[in-house]
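This part of the workshop introduces the protein records we will be handling. A record pairs a protein's sequence with a compact description of its fold. Comparing a sequence with its tokens is the quickest way to learn the format. The record below serves as our worked example for the rest of this section:
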Amino acid sequence: MLSMHFPGFRVADVEHAHDRVRISISVDSDAATCPDCGRQSTAVHSTYVRQLRDLPILGEPVELQALVRRFRCRNSDCARITFSESLGGLAKRYAQRTDRVTDVLRSLVSMLSSTLSTIL
């Protein structure tokens, strides 16, 4: 049921720890596109886990563990040797929280700053 909240991703596991809900996901694709040359690759070099904060579920903090693959670029004319797959609309590169959390935070900051400016 959670997979509908993460389109384009596989939900591998959901674990309720003492103080949070931990959801393990991975990209639901066998290939990734090199950001430099645009060629698709299926040659996995390695994997790593990204920890992302997401919106709470029923008041419980949510931690996403995204399994990210590094791919080899097979284009001999491309200067890039390896690249990480994109998490698409879920999170920006190097982000520690999902785009959904960032959007909520921006809305709150905008609302609070406009409220403060009318008070002052």
